[in-house]
Each structure stands twice: as C-alpha cells, then as structure tokens.
Design brief:
The structure is a single chain. With 1528 residues, the chain is mostly helical. 59% of the residues lie in helices and 1% in strands. The protein is built from 70 helices and three strands. A three-stranded mixed sheet has the order 1-2-3, with helices on both faces. A hairpin with a 7-residue loop joins strand 2 and strand 3 (812-813). The termini are far apart.
Length: 1528
C-alpha cells in the first residue's frame, strides 16, 4: 500500500501537473525531516530495498534515452565530474544491483553480468528492422552498442564479467548475432575473436556460421554503401586472425581448448571460403552480380598489404602455398586425356580474370622458385584439377620474367626422370607443361615445335640413351594420338625425333599411325600450306585460307628476290598434291590482266617457263582471263569485309584498349597490365582471324616494300586502331607521370604488336605513315610513333630481320634500323619530320631509361636516327655549330613535346644542349662522323632544300674546314689532312652513286653530277679540295712521289670486289670502274699525269694511271681501245704537265715511249680516236710550245697516215715503227671503212715486214671476238672474212702465225705488249677464234709447222674447259640477229628449245645493255665448225647442252719434238672427221634439238656435250687417242 502510494506520489502531477523526479522528492524529504547521524544509513538501506524489489536490470542497462544529462549511461556518469553524488550512486547502484540479483539467484555476479550484457547485445542486434541476412549495423545500433560496451568494460574493471559465460550466451543466439558486433567485441578488447570461436564446442557449426557471415560480408563490402571502410577493416582483421591461427607454428595456448582445434577451424574457414569462390567461378558468374562481387572481395584478401601487421612473413607464405595447393587440387574431375584435348582453352587470355588475378597475387609473396616447387610437389603427390594447373602455368610464364628458365628446367627434370624410370606421369606432365607454356608465345616460352626439336631432335636428346627409352617415347606418343590436336601431330611428323637407323621401324610405325589419325581428322600433311606455322596448337587453318596466304607470301618473296621462291619449287617436287590441287588453282585465279605485268603475272610466267605449270592448266587460265569482265557487283563482293574482321571483334578490341588506357593513367593498376595485355592479345587474334596460329615471332624475315607498302583493308583498320591507342595512351600517361614512372605498359603493348602475322602489317603501316604521309602527322602521332620505335629497339633481340625492298638494298635489317630508312632527309619536309621524330625518340628514351644502364639506353635507339638528329641540328641551327654551353641536366624537352602545340625547334635545341644528350651524342658509334655527314648530305635535293645555295655552301665550308677537317680521326674527323678528307669524300661518293643507281635512279642518269641530285655541291667541294691539293707545296727532299690519292682509293675498292668471270662479278666491277672513270673525268686532267719538277728532266709520273688501265680498264675496253673521253683526258693532262716542264717535247716523248712498253693500250686508243684528238692536241701544243709536235706524237700521226694510205689507190709508203702500232692503226681504218673484202689492200703489204701482218692478224682476231660479244659491232661474218683474208695472206707468205695463240705473261717484248692490248676474256676466247678459222687452214702449210699439233691440242683442251664452264655461248649467239631477241624473250634462264636449258647466261629480258656487254660467255652453246673448203653459214640455232662434268686436263707437254708429219696429219684428220669429233663439238651450226648429232646420241643433262654413255666414251677415247698421238 505504501509502495503504491509512493509510486502515485511520484507520478502525480501535483502542483501544476508537473512530474517530479526522484531527486526532488528525496530532497524535499530531507528538508522536511532532519535525520541524525544514525538515520542516514537506515534511509539508504530502505532505498536499496525499495529498488531491489522493483528493479529491471535489462531496462537499467539499456536506459540511454531521455533528456540530456539525465541518461543512466555509465560512461557519462564516470566521465562526469560535476557537483552531486549521482554518478557514484549510479555506478554503485548497477554493480550492487547485479550483485544482489546474483545473490538472490544463487549465481556468480560475473556470470549474471555476462548474461545481462549478452542479452543487451542481442537486443541491439535485433533492433534493426531491415531484411535479413545482414552482417553490418546501422549508425543507431552502433551508438547503442558503444554504450553497452562501456558498461561491459566497467564490469570488467570491477571483475564482474565472465568472458566464457558471455561467449556461451552469444552462441545460444548466434543466428541473431551480427558479425560487426562480434568484430567490435574484438576491437574493444571485451572478447577476442579467438576466444569467441574457441568457446564453441561444435567446430562444424563455427565453421559454417563464420563462413556464411564472411561471404555476406564480402558481398556487402563490394556493394556501394557508406560503411565500406568498416567492412574492409572487418574482413582484414578476420583474415589476419584466421591466417595467424591456421599457419603460425608457435600457436598461443592460453585458450580454453587445444590449439589444434582452433587451427583446424581457421583452416576450414579459409578453405571453405576459397572453395565457394572457385565453385562460383566454375559456375560462370556474371560480372556485377553479388556472387562476382563476393569472389572479387575474397580474392582481394590475398594482397600483400593485407598482412603488413603480421611481423613474420612465414605465415602469409604458408597460407599462400596452401591456397595454391587448394586451387590446384580443387575438384579434380578432369582426366589427362581431357587436358590434352582442352588445354588450348586454358591459356592466360582465356582464364577468368578473377582467377588469373588471384594467381598474380599469390605470385607476389611467393618467389618463382617456390611457385615451381609447389607446383611440382602438388603434381607429384595429389590428384589435380588440370584446368587450374595449366592456367596457373600460363599465368606463371606470362607474369614472371624468370619463369621461362625455371619452367624449362622443370620440364627437363621431368623428362630426365621419366626416361630414367619410365615414369608415365612425369612424361605426361612434361608434355602438358611445355605445350601450355608454348601457347603463350615465344616471348614467354619457345614454340612447341622448337621445344620438341630441342628435346628429341638431336643425339643428345633424353630418348637417345637406350632402346628402352625409345620404345617408351614412341609408346607414349602413340597413346597420345587419339587425343592429339592436328597441329601437334604435324609437328611430330615433320620434325620427328632423331632415331638410330637400326630402330627406324619405331619411328616409321608412329609416323604411319599419326598420318592415319590426320587422315581421319581430314588434315593432310601433303596439303599443308607452304608457309604454314607449326609453332602453336591452334586449329589447322582452312585449306582455302592457307592457300591464299601461301600465294600472297610467294608473290611477296618473288617481288624482293626476283626468283621463284624455294618453297614453291620444293612443293612442286615433293608436295605435288598440294601444289597442283591447291596452290596453282589459287595462283591462277582468273582476273583482268594488267597492261604492265605485275608481280603475280611475272611469277606465273616464270613458273610456266620452268614447266611448273601444266600447259593445259595454263591455257585454261589464259582463256579465262581473256573472257573475264570486271562487274561492279563482283568488285563489291570482293571488297566485302572478311568474317574474321567483323565489327564485333573490333568492338571487343576497342573496349579492351579503352580499359588499358584507364589502367595506364592509374598507377595502382599497373600490376594488372599483363592480364589486360593478354586480353588485348586474344581480342587481336579474333579481330584478325588468326586463331592461335600466330604465336611465333621468329622464323623467316619480314619482307617489306618501302616504295609501295601494301596492307589489306582489315589489317589497316586493326593496325590503325592499335597505333592510335598507343599514341593516346602515351599522351594520357605522360599527362600524369613522366615515362620513367609510367610502368611497363608500353613495353607490354609493343610485345603484343610484334607477333609473326601482325608485325609485317605493323611495319608496312609505319612505312606508309612515316615515309609517305609524314608531313600530315600531328605532334601526338610523331611522339607516339617515336616511343613505339624505342620499345621496338628494346625488343630487337626477339624480332626477325626485315628485308627491305626498293628503294633500298634487299638485305636483312634489324627492326630499329628500319626507321633510319623510313625517315630520309632529302627535302625540307622530310628533314622536319625526321627532326621531330628523332627529338621525340631521344627525349623519350633518355627519360624512360634514366635510372637504368646506359647500354640499355643505347640499344633502344637506332644509331642512324641519332646521327640524323645531329646532322639536321647542325644544318638548321647555326647556334648549334658553336661550342656547347651546358644547361641544367634536369631540364628535359619531354614535357613540352606532350603539349598539343609542341615547339619542335625549341625542343630540339633544348635536347641538344642537355648534358645527358650531349654525353649520348659523343658516344662512339653514335657520334656524327665525317663519313656519316657526307652520306647524309649527298641525299639532300638542292631544289627542295631548306637552305639556299649560298647558305648550303657556307654550311659545307663550315662542316668540312671548321668541324670535321681539324677534328681527330678518333672522333670521326680527318686530323687536319686535306687528302684524307678528299679520299673519304670520293669513297662515300662512289658508294652513294652505286647504290642510288641500283635502286633509286633511272638507268641512264648521270651518276656524279646529273643523276644524283644531292651530290652536285658535294662534288664541287671535291673539286675545290683537289685544286687546293694541286696548288699545295711539293714534298720536301728527294723522296719519290707517292702518287695521287685517288688511285689508292680506286685500288682499295677494286681489290675488295670479287674477281671472277661470272656475269655478276663482271657487272659489279664494270660499274665500279665506270664510277672511277667519271670521277677522274670530273677532276683536272693533271690527276692522271703527275707534274714533273722544273729542275729535273723527267717524265711526268703516270705509273698509277698505267696500272689502272692495264689491270682494270683494259678488261672493259672495246676492240683494243679505251673510250674517247678517258683517252682525251689523259692526253690533255699529259700536255698540261709537259707545259710545266723545262723541255716539254722531251717530257712528252719520255712519257709516250714509256707507254709503248708499260701501257700500249693508250696509244692504240689514241689511234682509234685520232681524227677527234688531233685538232685538240695541235691546239694545246701550240699554246705551250712553239716547236713542232713531239716525236712520239708525230709517230702516231705517221701511223695513222700509213693506215689511210693502205686503203687508198696509191701505193703505201713503208710502215713506220713500231709494227704493232701501224697494225693497230690499219685495223681501225679497215674497221671504219667497212669493206666486204680487203684482199686487194692486203696486197700492198707484200713489201712490208712480216711483223706487220702478224700483228694485223692479232687485231683482226680480237675484232672477230668483239663482233661476237658486242651487238653493235660489225657482223661476225664480215669480221671472219677479214681474219680469213689476213690469214690467207700470212699462209701465202709462209709467215708463222701460231705464236699468237701461245702468248703468255712470261713472254718478253711483243708478247707482253699484245696481251696488254686485249681484254683478258678475249684472250681466253682465242680457242674459239682458232677453230672458227679451221676451214681456212692450209693443210700443206701447216704440215711444215712443228708447233701446229701442240697449238691445236692446247686450243682444243682450252675450248673444252670454256665449254664446260659455260663461257662459249655468247661468242656466237649475239651475232645472229633476231636469234638473240628470240632467246631473250624466252624468260629468265630459259631457252626457246625448252625448259631447263640455259639461255644467254641467265640474262633476263630487259636487262641493260651494260649487262649484255659484260656477259662474256655464259650461254652454254657449242662452237661452229666448217667443213673443209668453205664455211658453214650460221643460219640455224645452236643446241644448248648441260655442263655438269669436270673435264679439266692436267697441263702437260702434248707434243714431243722429233715426231714426224704423219702424227700431225693423223690428228688433223681427227679434228676434221665428223664421226670422230666428240658429239660434234664443232658442228653447232646444225639443227637444234630436233636434229640428232652425228654420233646418234641425243643431248641429255648428264653429258658434257649433250650425249649419254657412248658419247662420253667417244669423248674419252678421243682424248686418249690425242694423247697417244702426242706421245703422252
């Protein structure tokens, strides 16, 4: 009753209806009743009893609402230090209340407190009305939980809280417990996570509960909310605790349960979380779904920064190893046979990004060696998930640079163990790992074909140790056959293991089995493409598609080599099925033929002439081409986009490139670049339709046509997309960070572009952009392409060579040096582009590799580009010609280049003045030398040069005389030696003109002054420097002059050329001599003739010029004379030199007298051109001397008059000496006269000396040979008639002429003189002239000549040698008028008689006249023979025979003196007998292949002279008979 009244009083509003609090009521009671000292305790006890009866502990603890400062919140009461005693009262009140309640219930106060706090915690967790399930709390819940934890901490301080009881209470309501509340208990040090987990008796229930809540936490962590930071912190703490408890060796044993139990729980939770993530991946989760977010979040816990708080790194390492093991062994349901068939689907690019990302995170903590060891241990001891194992291998070789060597070593150990113990598991694993690694391309691992050859293709292979190993290998390969991809079977068949001959049956059986399997798969080895790649496991290319690629490749190779590709020739013989049924139909696709035959048409015609195209097929092709008509709809259908390059693959590639750009500009995402580049690589294959047949970047060189690079439309679209993306990425990345802090994205991007099929298209597009469209490129394009060139240089070791076609030599170049060709400096526009490109490339490389070795920097740059940068800077900026003033080394022009409006001139000068770049430019091999400067300056075209004529001349003067001339030779200068400068200029000028004529100039262009437009001024500088040298001081003392430096240059260059009688060697030497001659003609004539000293009566020094004439110019003279220009130049120089002598007449006579013995060709040349020379010589002599012409010049004049008088009706005066000089003059006069017969004129020589007729016969012989060799010469019959009439005159006068066919260099006197008047090739052809005159020989006169037999046999043996060497055809064929054109039109290397027979020595149609003139005897045809009494007219074609047998004969004495005329007559009859002469060598004027030779044996390829068997025997017998007759 009293209690009810008290409650009513407290609740009654009373006065004014205001409710009064307990404090006011108690205060009023105090005022109304004064208590004594003993009353206060009594009142307190009464109050406590009252509270105990009506106290609700739950409401007391949760009383957090109400007016400010009126809350019963223990934390506030404890922190409050204002007046009043209510704080102490509340604290004591809660503690005392809990004790009293515990006493009444008979339980410990700590247990009761724990129950009360647990109950309050559950109420807080259940306060949120949101939908379950959830693991995070609301802000209101966190506020209430904070107050509750303060009470719990106060109870802990009073030792009134039991953690074990609290945990047990929580487990009773675990379904209502929020994971965040559990985490906050751990953070507030009320109950740790470990204590909470250890308090549960059922480990399975703990694992299930924690795993479920962790999955929910992962889902909510990735969801967009304001509490993501809290969720990530929770996940990090939970994972760290689990990792420490599961994988720490020294486990804390303070818990209430055994440590092993907690370890098992932690391991089970981690394994369940990973297993659920892997199952979700296997189920194919969609990106953006809750499951995808949960998996992504859980995989993020494997980041290294998650474990920074863990002092020891052993626990994370053991955790990562355990995780990798679980991944590799997760649900091992696939068999090895499944892995063999499906492994190509598990490449890095096709692995789910989440899984490959997990692998990469594991690779961060684990070293490559630990990863390989872990893989090896798991594979040897556990059943594995082959998909995960092989995708891990792919990720390993892609993401770790050292993985290739480790994986290769691992595979080698597996193979060694497999063959040592015949372990099939190791064998299977080795092949699977090697094939998987090879799928990722040669940058990561060698191709499968290369690996298989390296492992089994040599005697050092693993299989070569015993027969047992061989049987094991082939049994394993045979067991794989039903499951193998066709590509692997093709590798095994085409590159089989090396097997000893006695075990060959094992290989044969396997090859047969593999071929059968390929046939079942409808894949034929015979029908493989000519250029098909075997380096990957991709699908076999469709036949029609592979064939079209083969045709295009063959045409490209033919364009650059001019020959039928070797692969095509081999296929026509060894792979005839594919060649006839696939290649030829694709090549002979009917089309409208172009007016000017293109490469395809020329290749078809060459194949036809080589009989590689069946006549019926070719006829069908020509007929179809003649009837086909181009229709608009047909053209439209041919221009349709290929299916493999549809918009969808391009769209996917564009998306992948866009995602890469986001990673490039975000440095934290740099670790994901490898994965993104793998995705780009996969989309690139799809866009180009390459499947997986494009993994090998090595192999055949890339063929590139610089003049007209071509791309398919879809290739250009893809390459443009890639180049645009690279340029944009570079600019975007440069706006965020300099190149050295942009990560490895650019290098990865370039490696992706360098695939075997993509690289040619990339280089062709770069050629189009830089060489043909350079001025239209923007600044960002130039900067991007320059950076691309730098990274191509970084990868130069992995790139094939580039064979560059016209206008550059078809030789192999490294890819970085290609840019030197693509960026010429000929015009102002091209020089500007080159300067921009070089500035950007050098600046980028200096910034990109600033912290790396200088060798890496230098290897990334093309030396040619660095030199061109120096060349243009010197040319354009006069301030750069001054000594450098060093600037701040930190200043770099890279940042200005990235701006839209880049100032290239300022950037170039900034780079030029930078200390680092100056150090680079002074490095050996990169410094611009005098030779480099000349080569670049010669390319300048003055009419479109940025410098005017005056500015260009001033620049030349500065460069030569101020920069390079005084510079030391070690730095590329001339050491102040003007002669060295001139010699270098001549050398470079000749190199430039030779190359420019070959591939960039017209055939008839002037090589020195007119044709090479850039060399006019440089040649002027040479003339100026040569004039300076001429005016220089004479050498001191009496030292012999050294000769002119020019002849030293010429001699060195000519000695470097190959000597030979083949057409190529002669053409090369002739072209070199032509350049030498033109340079001499452009310089003062005093160069040819040194000036004698005034104080000495000596002849001018002409030794160098004489040597050049005798050794080189003589072999390219015509009919015993040099050309007019060089002859006149010599005589001008001679007269000029003589004019400076004290006695001009004596100097001239001494020089010309020396010419008679040292260089007689100059005198005969003067006789040939005397009508043109004489007026000029008279005029020049009158200017230098009043005396008559020198004696030796008058001698030439008299010889000319004598020759003219012989052909005149008047009697000829006596011949002046020497006789050979008069004979030469007479020969030239006869040739100019062109008479049919000179019998009457020769009659006037009866009174002349014998020597005159002999020498005239020699010159006539040379004229006869020249008429055969030179089409412009007089007819060969007319020349033959002249020779015959001279011969007849000799025979009538009984003058011996046989010594003319026995001339040697050892002969003294006239023999050596005559040999110096004829080219070497004509002297070698003297046997031809000998037997051409056979029918004119007087038998009776010859019987009196003891030397005839010796000469005849010697000539015959030399003739056989010439014939076998193929050097006799051209002496007859060119003289037959239309026959030359008929054979020339037959095509390259073919005669009209049919294929396989060489014609014209391999000359192709349209070859220049220079080549025909130099083709000395390359048509293998026989020689003409004349029946006794009259010549056989050359009205029929001559047969062509194969020369495949060496018939060289030792040089022995063929004639013994003392033999009588009977032996001579016998051998002469042998020569004239058609039945005895072998295969009628002398009867080549007969019918061609339609007529059988006299011996009745048809020509064949196996016989020297066309006969088989019997003919060879006849020939051998003839030589034996001749030897017997000669006494051998």
């Amino acid at each position: 009753m009293s209690a009810s009244r008290a409650r009513g009083a407290a609740s009654d509003p009373g006065h004014g209806g205001r409710r009064r609090a307990w404090v006011e009521l108690l205060a009023g009671r105090v005022r109304r009743q004064q208590l004594g000292p003993e009353g206060e305790p009594k009142v307190g006890e009464s109050a406590v009893r009252l509270l105990r009866r009506h106290l609700n502990l739950g409401d007391l603890v949760l009383e957090v609402d109400g007016p400010p400062r009126k809350q019963l919140c223990l934390s506030r009461l404890i922190d409050y230090d204002g007046p009043g005693a209510h704080t102490d009262l509340s604290s004591s009140l809660i503690g005392s209340a809990l004790r009293d309640q515990a006493a009444q219930l008979g339980v410990p106060a700590a247990v009761l407190s724990s129950q009360v706090v647990a109950s309050g915690l559950v109420q807080v967790c259940e306060a949120d009305a949101g939908p379950p399930p959830k693991v995070l709390m609301t802000p209101d819940q966190r506020k209430k939980l904070s107050s509750l934890f303060e009470i719990a901490q106060n109870l802990l301080a009073q030792s009134m809280f039991s953690r074990l009881s609290f945990c047990q209470e929580l487990w009773k309501v675990q379904n209502s417990l929020l994971l965040e509340a559990v985490w906050r208990l751990h953070v507030q040090n009320i109950v740790s996570l470990q204590e909470l987990l250890e308090s549960h008796a059922d480990s399975q229930a703990v694992v299930a509960w924690l795993s479920r809540d962790l999955r929910l936490l992962c889902e909510q962590t990735e969801a967009p909310c304001q509490h993501a930071d809290v969720a990530r912190a929770m996940l990090s703490d939970f994972v760290q605790m689990l990792v420490l408890r599961a994988f720490q060796k020294n486990v804390d044993v303070r818990g209430t349960v055994e440590p092993e139990w907690m370890t098992q729980v932690a391991v089970a939770v981690l394994e369940r979380m990973l297993a659920s993530a892997l199952e979700a991946l296997a189920a194919g989760i969609q990106e953006g779904s809750a499951a995808h977010k949960a998996v992504s979040c859980w995989f993020s816990v494997f980041s290294g920064h998650m474990y920074r708080s863990i002092i020891s790194t052993e626990s994370p390492k053991r955790f990562f190893c355990h995780t990798l093991t679980q991944i590799l062994t997760h649900k091992p349901v696939l068999k090895v046979s499944d892995a063999v068939q499906m492994q190509r689907e598990w490449s890095f690019a096709r692995t789910p990004p989440l899984l490959s990302g997990l692998y990469r995170r594991l690779f961060v903590i684990l070293s490559p060696e630990e990863l390989v060891d872990c893989l090896q241990e798991v594979l040897e001891t556990r059943e594995v998930n082959w998909q995960h194992v092989l995708s891990c291998v792919s990720t390993l070789v892609i993401c770790l640079p050292d993985a290739q060597q480790l994986v290769n070593g691992w595979v080698s150990r597996l193979l060694a163990h497999a063959f040592e113990s015949c372990d099939l598991d190791s064998m299977v694993l080795a092949f699977l790992v090697a094939r998987q690694a090879a799928l990722e391309g040669p940058a990561a691992f060698p191709s499968y074909a290369a690996w298989f050859q390296a492992a089994f293709g040599s005697a050092r292979g693993f299989h070569s140790c015993s027969k047992k190993a061989l049987v094991f290998l082939f049994k394993f390969l045979s067991d794989l056959v039903p499951f193998e991809a066709p590509r692997y079977l093709q590798v095994h068949v085409l590159h089989p293991p090396l097997v000893p001959s006695k075990y060959r049956a094992l290989l044969t059986d396997y090859v047969a089995l593999a071929r059968t399997r390929l046939a079942d798969l409808k894949v034929s080895i015979e029908n493989m493409g000519l250029y098909e790649d075997l380096s990957s496991a991709g699908d076999v290319t469709e036949p029609h598609r592979q064939t079209s690629q083969d045709v295009e490749k063959a045409i490209m190779v033919f364009e650059h080599t001019g020959k039928i590709p070797a692969a095509v020739l081999e296929a026509s013989i060894f792979r005839r099925s594919y060649y006839l049924s696939h290649f030829l139909p694709a090549l002979l696709t009917p089309r409208v033929l172009p007016r000017v035959p293109d490469s395809r048409a020329v290749l078809i015609e060459s194949l036809r002439r080589a009989e590689k195209i069946p006549p019926s097929l070719y006829a069908t092709y020509r007929q179809a081409c003649s009837t086909v008509r181009e229709k608009p709809e047909d053209a439209a259908s041919r221009r349709e986009v290929e299916p493999s390059c549809a918009e969808e693959p391009l769209g996917l590639l564009t998306t992948a490139l866009r995602e890469l750009r986001a990673s490039v500009t975000d440095p934290p995402q740099h670790d994901a670049l490898s994965a993104q580049m793998a995705v780009i690589s996969e989309q690139l294959r799809s866009a180009l339709g390459l499947s997986e047949d494009d993994s090998d970047v090595e192999g055949a060189p890339v063929q590139l046509s610089v003049r007209a690079p071509e791309l398919r439309p879809w290739e250009q679209r893809v390459v443009d997309l890639l180049l645009t993306s690279f340029c944009q990425n570079l600019m975007a990345a440069s706006s965020v960070a300099p190149p050295d802090r942009q990560g490895p994205w650019a290098a990865h991007f370039v490696r992706t572009l360098c695939r075997r099929r993509l690289l040619p298209a990339l280089l062709s597009r770069l050629c189009q952009l830089l060489r043909h469209q350079g001025p239209s490129l923007s600044a960002s394009h130039v900067v991007g392409l320059a950076a691309l060139a730098v990274h191509l240089g970084e990868s130069r070791s992995a790139l094939p060579e580039v064979h560059v076609g016209p206008p550059t030599p078809a030789r192999g170049l490294p890819v970085p040096e290609l840019f030197d060709i693509l960026l010429p400096c000929r015009t102002q526009e091209s020089s500007a582009l080159c300067l921009k490109f070089c500035t950007a490339a050098i600046s980028y490389s200096l910034c990109k590799f600033s912290s790396q070795s200088r060798d890496i920097l230098y290897s990334c740059l093309s030396p040619g580009l660095i030199k061109k940068f120096q060349f243009i800077v010197f040319r354009w900026f006069s301030e750069a010609r001054d000594p450098p003033s060093w600037e701040d080394p930190a200043s770099s022009p890279w940042r200005p280049l990235c701006l839209p409006s880049a100032d290239w001139r300022r950037a170039a000068l900034c780079l030029w003045k930078q200390r680092t770049s100056r150090e680079l430019l002074q490095r050996e091999g990169l410094r611009l030398t005098y030779r480099d400067w000349l080569q670049l300056e010669l390319e300048i075209q003055p009419e479109v040069d940025s410098l005017s004529d005056t500015e260009r001349r001033d620049f030349h003067q500065w460069a030569i005389h101020q920069h390079f001339l005084p510079a030391p030779s070690a730095t590329g200068g001339c050491d102040g030696d003007l002669e060295v400068a001139c010699a270098t200029l001549v050398d470079v000028l000749m190199d430039f003109c030779q190359s420019s004529r070959s591939y960039d100039r017209s055939e008839n262009s002037d090589l020195v002054v007119g044709g090479c437009t850039g060399n006019r001024d440089i040649f002027s500088r040479l003339q100026e420097m040569a004039a300076d040298l001429e005016q220089g001081p004479a050498p001191l003392g009496h030292a012999a002059p050294r000769g002119h430096f020019l002849f030293g240059v010429f001699c060195r260059r000519l000695q470097a050329l190959a000597r030979g009688w083949d057409v190529a060697s002669r053409l090369q030497r002739q072209r070199e001599l032509l350049m030498c001659k033109r340079i001499l003609l452009g310089l003062p004539p005093s160069v040819l003739v040194g000036s004698p000293r005034l104080e000495q009566l000596a002849a001018p020094d002409c030794d160098d010029f004489f040597h050049l004439v005798n050794s080189e110019l003589r072999n390219f003279s015509y009919d015993g004379a040099l050309t007019h220009d060089i002859t006149a130049h010599f005589f001008r120089g001679l007269l000029n030199a003589c004019s400076r002598s004290r006695d001009p007449s004596l100097a001239a006579d001494l020089t010309l007298t020396a010419c008679q013995t040292q260089c007689p060709l100059l005198l005969t040349s003067a006789l040939l051109w005397w009508p043109h020379l004489e007026p000029e010589l008279h005029h020049r002599w009158r200017r230098c001397s009043q005396s008559p012409l020198p004696t030796e010049l008058r001698r030439l004049q008299e010889a000319q008059h004598f020759a003219a008088s012989v052909l005149s009706p008047l009697a000829a005066p006596p011949a002046p000496g020497p006789a050979w000089l008069c004979a030469a003059a007479l020969h030239f006069v006869i040739r100019r006269a062109g008479k049919e017969s000179i019998r009457q004129e020769l009659g006037q020589l009866d009174s002349q000396g014998e020597e005159l007729l002999v020498f005239l016969f020699f010159f006539s012989l040379m004229g006869l040979l020249s008429s055969h060799l030179t089409p412009q010469a007089i007819g060969s019959l007319k020349a033959l008639d002249v020779c015959a009439e001279v011969l007849g005159c000799l025979q009538r006068k009984r003058i011996s002429w046989l010594p003319l066919f026995q001339l040697t260099e050892a002969d003294a006197g006239l023999g050596r003189t005559l040999l110096r008047l004829a080219p070497d090739h004509q002297v070698r052809l003297l046997p031809v002239a000998f037997y051409s005159l056979l029918s004119y020989f007087d038998k009776d006169a010859l019987l009196q000549e003891d030397a005839f037999l010796h000469v005849a046999v010697n000539m015959y043996l030399k003739l056989v040698g010439l014939f076998v060497a193929g050097e006799t055809g051209a002496v007859w064929t060119p003289a037959h008028g239309g026959e030359l054109q008929a054979q020339a039109g037959a095509g390259p290397g073919l005669s009209p008689d049919g294929p396989g027979r060489p014609a014209l020595g391999g000359l192709r149609p349209g070859q220049p006249l220079l080549a025909q003139r130099a083709a000395v005897g390359t048509l293998t045809a026989a020689l003409p023979v004349f029946s006794p009494g009259r010549p056989r007219k050359p009205d029929n074609k001559c047969s062509s025979f194969s020369a495949a047998v060496d018939t060289s004969v030792p040089k022995k004495e063929l004639l013994r003196r003392g033999r009588g005329n009977a032996q001579m007559l016998t051998l002469l009859s042998v020569f004239k007998s058609p039945s005895l002469f072998p295969v009628r060598v002398l009867n080549t004027f007969g019918k061609t292949s339609t007529r059988r030779p006299a011996l009745g044996i048809s020509p064949g390829p196996g016989c020297v002279f066309g006969g088989r068997g019997a003919a060879r025997a006849q020939h051998t017998g003839f030589l034996a008979a001749a030897g017997r007759e000669c006494g051998l």
